[in-house]
Write a structure and sequence with these properties.
Order of helices and strands: EHEHEHEHHEHEHHEEHEEEHEHHHHEEHH
Radius of gyration: 21 Å
Distance between the termini: 23 Å
CATH topology of the largest domain: TIM Barrel
CATH class of the largest domain: Alpha Beta
Helix content: 40-55%
Number of domains: 2
Strand order of the largest sheet: 7-8-6-5-4-3-2-1-9
CATH architecture of the largest domain: Alpha-Beta Barrel
Structural class: alpha/beta
Length: about 400
């Protein structure tokens, strides 16, 4: 029942040099769509959306350019996007502008070009600092190349660098994960994200494991080993000064991801590009829409009408409350803010989250007044607790 006074932008660049066998993101290796044609389409969609939603001049809090592999694009193309965003919205020096980069496409000149184009935060898909694990993941880079990319980003002037790491990799053991963590911590990135590998349906990984193509040395870690890996990451990172502000995310003070926090706080963002999703919290209890995933069809649709929607939905009040509970619980430090929840929905979260008392008694939740948080004992069972939070 509100209209945000700020906006975020997500741009999806779906092109990749190669497709990782575990990835189920919307990405494509070959396409007849040129870089120039794709950028032109994104800019046309931007203009159409800004006009339709009467957003011109709104304060712009964050931009996130993801993929795919956005670092395949030239700095001049990224610069055109950033300049257009700044013209359409109010963007001061505090506006966070992030681009995802793969180590194998992160040469020093390109990184310097991105920085000159106005990008002020970079997210590097390191995934592992163990060459055996990178090979198991089908990654094109080596651990040495990932470290080189990090230092090249520093040399290019980036003082806000995030790295992504994966645990639960085939053949991985807790001591090898710990070695990766220690090497990562030695780099002192401002932000570290850790993700447990999941075998997604439709990926080569899913097919390989279904058909048992991997040998014993490449078997997936046991659940107990993954728990140990996650716990060791929390311990090492928090001891090193990174704050555990979201289930999978750690940041040095002042370097939490502004853009991702918009998602977790249920704030407005528009998605541009093939397969991009958008969310606006108004009218009513919010709405979202999503775009055509194939780049060629996306470009055709944008040329014809200025938009490429293939789906949309409006939220009911109970759906909006459920999402607010689920997203709030992910925020380790902030939790579900009772006052904000009441302000939006007219009830406190405890009135909706009926099973909070039992979870608090068992040590999985912490209640402070009207605010609800995951307790340390509940973080490892977050998925189960989130499911309970959304059940009647």
């Amino acid at each position: 029942m509100r209209k945000e006074d700020t906006v975020g932008i997500y741009v999806h660049i779906p092109f990749c040099a190669s497709k990782c066998p575990y990835c189920d993101f919307k990405s494509i290796v070959t396409s007849d769509v040129s870089e120039k044609e794709y950028v032109e389409s994104v800019l046309r969609e931007l203009s159409f959306t800004v006009e339709r939603e009467s957003m011109m001049g709104l304060p712009l809090e964050s931009v996130y350019i993801g993929g795919g592999t956005p670092s395949l694009f030239s700095p001049s193309s990224i610069g055109r996007l950033v300049e257009s965003f700044r013209k359409a919205f109010q963007a001061d020096d505090e506006c966070e502008i992030t681009i995802e980069v793969n180590p194998d496409s992160a040469d020093p000149l390109k990184l310097s070009g991105f920085r000159a184009a106005g990008v002020n935060r970079i997210s590097i898909g390191v995934q592992s600092l163990d060459d055996r694990e990178l090979k198991a993941l089908g990654r094109a880079h080596t651990a040495e190349k990932a470290v080189e990319a990090f230092y090249a980003a520093r040399a290019a002037g980036f003082d806000n660098i995030g790295i992504d790491l994966i645990f639960g990799i085939p053949g991985q053991k807790p001591h090898r994960w710990r070695d990766t963590l220690l090497r990562a911590l030695a780099l002192r990135p401002e932000h570290i994200s850790i993700y447990g590998l999941t075998i997604e349906e439709g990926t080569p990984f899913a097919s390989a494991y279904k058909n048992r193509k991997y040998g014993a040395s490449e078997s997936l870690p046991e659940e107990s080993e993954e728990v140990e890996m996650y716990s060791s990451a929390v311990e090492l990172l928090t001891e090193g000064g990174w704050r555990h502000y979201e289930i999978s995310n750690f940041g040095l003070p002042g370097h939490f991801s502004v853009h991702n926090r918009r998602y977790w706080h249920g704030k407005d963002y528009i998605g541009l590009g093939a397969a991009a999703h958008s969310y606006l919290s108004y009218p009513g209890w919010g709405r979202r829409w999503w775009n055509e995933p194939m780049p060629s069809k996306y470009v055709e649709d944008i040329k014809r009408s200025g938009e490429a929607k293939i789906g949309r939905e409006s939220l009911e009040k109970d759906e909006a409350m459920e999402e607010s509970l689920l997203l709030g619980l992910r925020m380790i430090e902030e939790g579900i803010n009772g006052a904000a929840f009441m302000d939006r929905f007219g009830v406190y979260p405890r009135e909706v989250f009926k099973k909070h008392a039992g979870l608090e008694r068992d040590g999985f939740l912490r209640i402070d007044g009207e605010d609800i948080f995951l307790a340390p004992g509940g973080v490892l069972l977050a998925d189960e607790i989130l499911a309970i939070a959304s059940s009647p």
